[in-house]
Amino acid sequence: MTIPSFSVGGKVTIITGASRGIGNTLAMGFAEAGARVALVARTASALESTVEKIRSKGGTAIAIPTDVTNCKQLEEMVEKTISEFGRIDVLLNVAGGAGETWVLPPLDMPEAFYDELDGRNYKGVFFCNQAVARVMVEQKSGSIINFSSLSGTKPVVFEAVVGGLKAAVNQLTKALAAAWGPDNVRVNAIAPGITLTERVKKKLKPEFIKNISQSIPLRRPAQPEDLLGPALFLASDASSYITGMIMPADGGPQ
Ligand SMILES: NC(=O)c1ccc[n+]([C@@H]2O[C@H](COP(=O)([O-])OP(=O)(O)OC[C@H]3O[C@@H](n4cnc5c(N)ncnc54)[C@H](OP(=O)(O)O)[C@@H]3O)[C@@H](O)[C@H]2O)c1
């Protein structure tokens, strides 16, 4: 029997949201696992310093400062990746997030902030899929992994808008999996629960984290590193017959 490969060695991987948080951890992890990574976000300095760290450990990385809500910049992101590496095997679509909705009840949501959330959590996700899939469909191979959230299936009051957008990402993921499956392009999503990035740790009081842990079957929130295994699996050939799946990474049913 041929044992399937769980390796991402040599795979060209674009990671959006790589300047901090979960995307930054995944960028470091994929590079350490041997992937050739293109790091994407708006903050060029943070991308450059991560590229430096990866190269100092012998990894292969480039920084491509990009606003994922800008289609022209997404096209340039794809062009730069192709000109550097010649192909795209994996897209980790991590850019997104709830921002200040932690403290913003739905009745107080201003239009400008709604548009900002919509831009990075849905529009940017779709057009990034589109830009990268144009290459993958041509190649007849590729794995796209969108970042959803537990709030896409469980009602979370302070994430009412983002939760709705993440539910849309779930449905989009399934529809794109159906659209591009015939060209051997897989589209899956990872749906994390609360994950203790530096940003989240600064916002939440330890008492709140302790209380919320009681509703999680594994009795703890995720660390960003907990998301690396699921992402590596979905990126690798070991998941070659899995597409259109929304994989929970939330510590158990809640
Ligand atoms: N942390 C959690 O508890 C949690 C739970 C469930 C789901 N998630 C999901 O996991 C993903 C990562 O979350 P996180 O907590 O790591 O978020 P984060 O710390 O706020 O990081 C967000 C990342 O997205 C990038 N970004 C934001 N807007 C962008 C834009 N317009 N163009 C390009 N890049 C943009 C940011 O970089 P720049 O500002 O430099 O552009 C940053 O790298 C998100 O999709 C989030 O919804 C997180």
Structure description:
The chain has 254 residues and is of the alpha/beta class. The protein has one domain (12-195, 224-249): NAD(P)-binding Rossmann-like Domain (Rossmann fold). It is 44% helix and 15% strand. It contains eight helices and seven strands, in the order βαβαβαβαβαβαααβ. The chain has helices at residues 21-32, 44-56, 71-85, 111-139, 160-180, 198-203, 206-213, 228-235; strands at 12-16, 36-41, 60-65, 90-93, 142-147, 185-192, 246-249. Strands 3-2-1-4-5-6-7 form a seven-stranded parallel β-sheet, sandwiched between helices. Helix 4 (111-139) links the parallel strand 4 (90-93) and strand 5. Helix 3 (71-85) runs parallel beside helix 4 (111-139) and helix 4 packs parallel to helix 5 (160-180). It starts with 11 loop residues before the first strand and ends in a 5-residue tail after the last strand. The mean pLDDT is 97. It binds NADP nicotinamide-adenine-dinucleotide phosphate.
